[in-house]
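Technical note accompanying the year-one report. For the benefit of new consortium partners, we illustrate the data format agreed upon in the data management plan: each record pairs a sequence with a structure-token string. No post-processing was applied to the example shown here.
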Amino acid sequence: MKAGANMKIAGKTLCVFVLLSITKVMRTVGNNRVSAMVGNSSVLTCPPKSNTTMVTWKISPKVGGPCTLGYRADQNKTDRTNCSDSMNWKFRPDRDPALEIRQVGIAHEGSYTCEVVATEGNFHKTYHLTVLVPPRLTLYCDDQGTPVCKAAAGKPAAQVSWVLESNSTPKEEGHDNGTVTVLSKFTAYSTNVTNTTCVVSHPAGNQSKSIACHPSKNNGFILYVSIILCFLGIITFMAAIYYFKLHRDRLCHKTKPPETAPTHSLQDDTMEVEPYTTYVQKENIIYSSVSDLTVGQNLPQGLSPAT
């Protein structure tokens, strides 16, 4: 009976110890959202404990692979795995295991967890780092004399508004690096408004600029000139097509091949020459016969014998 009672007491003691340990760990777990300005330095603290045996920073950035920074008290040694030179211990890790990020960039955005192993127990603290990029504010007048406000490459997207009431709707354009450009065109309810102010609200800081735009009075004239130029362009184009078509027809008539003359074959020429040759031969035969007869009768040449 005593042995069974002792076992029950030991079991209850163990459960209470485990519960207390879990409660202690849960109390030390923290999820903190922090932000840092791009280009600045940021320090993430880790709760220092007495009799620390090991400290480890586990970093999971949104861009690139994870990295770790470690410290072992029994060897008084630090090591790092896949971490860039921009991340390092702020002080000596045995005294203050804080992590410092120098020249914060968008690539540093992500999760940072500090794990401390001490005689008092294990302690964890997690940070979710957000990098802020202030937008570049520009304010100008467009061709129609309308104020245009542009908050370029901000992170997160900026909020653009006008001091005077406007019914414009801002347009957002996202970029590959996570920044956003916001463009807003002022549209006044009254046409008499010439001076207005653009206000850009952002977690990295607010900005504002004022500008006086004068609506263009030459819009009608420009439109009239544009119509005339367009009409003249169409006429010129049609005239050019007609000219090239006419020129092409004339060129085709000039380059038309002449009618081929009838060709005479050698056989036709021979046939035309042969009758003449036959005639000459017959004349020669007759002349020879007359000559022989005249000589035979001793008649003067040129007289023919009487028949």
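Partners are asked to follow this layout when depositing records. The first strand starts at residue 31 and ends at 37.
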